[in-house]
Sequence to fold (668 residues):
Amino acid sequence: MQLVLEKRAERSNTIALVSPLIAIGLTIVTMVILFAILGKNPLLALHAYFIAPLTDSYSLQEIAVKATPLVMIAIGLSLCYLANAWNIGAEGQFLIGAVAGSWIAVKTQGTDAGAWVLPVMFVLAAAAGALYALIPAICKVRFGASEILTSLMLVYVADLFLDYLVRGPWRDPNGFNFPTTAEFDPVATVPLLIEGGRLHLGSIIALLVVAAVAILLGRTIKGFEIRVVGAAPRAARFGGFNSNQLILLTFAVSGALAGLAGIIEVAGPVGHLQPGISPGYGFTAIIVAFLGRLNPLGILIAGLFLALTFIGGEQAQIAMKIPLDVTKVFQGILLFYVLACDSLILYCFKLVFPNRQVARGAN
Amino acid sequence: MELIEAIILAVLAASTPLLIAATGELVTERSGVLNLGVEGMMIVGAACGFAGAWLTGSIFIGALFGIVAGTLMSLVFALMTLGLAVNQVATGLALTILGIGLSGLIGAGFVGERITPAVHLHIPGLTDIPLIGRVLFGEDAFVYFSLALIVGVWWFLYRTRPGLILRACGDNHVSAHALGYPVLRIRTFAVMFGGACAGLAGAYLPLAYTPFFIPGMTAGRGWIALALVVFSSWRPGRLVVGAYLFGAVTILQLHAQGWGVGVPSQLMSALPYLATVIVLVLLSRARTGGSTAPAALGTVFVPDR
Fold:
């Protein structure tokens, strides 16, 4: 008796819809086992992770704040992945965007610069993120170098560049030698939506991005080209679509969105540039993109869910001394289950009882 | 003289984890599977290796822990990509994300602890030869093992029948399957070998390179190992050259910082990563005539019955 995969005649739409839910269910079962191994009460831990953050206004706002960069980055990544271009350096594009935008904030500090500062910061951050993402994209289309490896290497370079700036030229002179810039001026800060709250303008921008990309993918020729190049490269060639141009485009858009997310994070919740501004948003966004089935609306939901795990993880650490790394393990396991369940869309499992002659070759 | 010797020793030490991890990945990729999870398997190998050595006091058992941890991680990858026909790129990324989390969880209790690092060979007389003595006869066991490993892999791939079959699976899985070879089983073994090597390479870091564990201590070495496989054009001989070149870049930037070269230390630290990008571009450019990669690399294979 053995378990084999059999290709379905066509994609199963039912499973396409429920597979993320199956994946989340399986992940939670695995987490219960992990909590038990760690000697924590699994029910209390699950409550701290998934229920407690939903019960007070501060945590709810904090979930939206954390989901903002995740959704923006993941939306961009989904375009790349749909076009079969593997940008995994969003973390670096996020950091470079944060740096480029902060440049204006640092240069105008203490001057009477007006309301133009924040929009210029946004534009610069998006442009820098796009340019930084174009490096691996150009290396790919021009020289054929693996975009996976080059985009990832540039994450480390961006990280070191930021580190250099906040320890060197941009360090706050009154900052007791901490590696950070001074707090940004009010004109260089993302406005809050509710006075005294946490929710800021960035969340609105993220929603606009979701809507824009939903229209791009669903209603425009470009969106159609992106989907065809990824799903059926041969058909795309016959259709005369320029796949190299689409790689450049999707990389540039995803870099711009990651860069924008970077400056929104720095000029919003953080308030100044410092190392460690991202708890791995660029990598978690990869999970968000897949959990959301590379679909804008799905990504919005998936982003909120993963933001919940960040906040829940912090609460579980405070309340039950559960290590923060459990959140990363959780996210990794979730991605595994998502990918495994996706396999069910294209294949179904069959238990076969082969007679001996056929069995040898089929293994 | 002393300085040159010290630099060569340091280069060998820095290159060894790259060489071991890249050797494993070379075999995996030669069978047609692209496992991007090397970084994740390495970091779990580092945490488990240190845990094993700290608990038992034996470097050897620590290394075994690393090997087993890396193999288990790779089995998860094999189950996903070979058993369930999931996209190899995405699964490799998932393996790395999971590995970073797991290593933090496993290693948390060991941060700040120290062990006695792996002993270096000492043959009276031979090891005392100036300049070359310590380089040739004064390394730790990992260095000699890594060289034996790559020679063994070369012999296996090019001089044995199973090696030929493994390469056939990597170049054309449909033909290999039609000839009756169990493609998925062969690939599973290749993936496990890659995992074992990555785990050992990770374990090398806290067992011999630095005698303590810090979270994230692999610092992208797994990714550099992946780039090295591309650099080598999937050939064992060039892999050795590549690994030692990259080790040299790493060590030279450290020394340059020590000599007070007038550039920011962060720029020097970024050198190995920048070098990887540049090398990938130059090599891919030089190779426009045709790819040397295994033809079936990274593609899904579901046998029809």
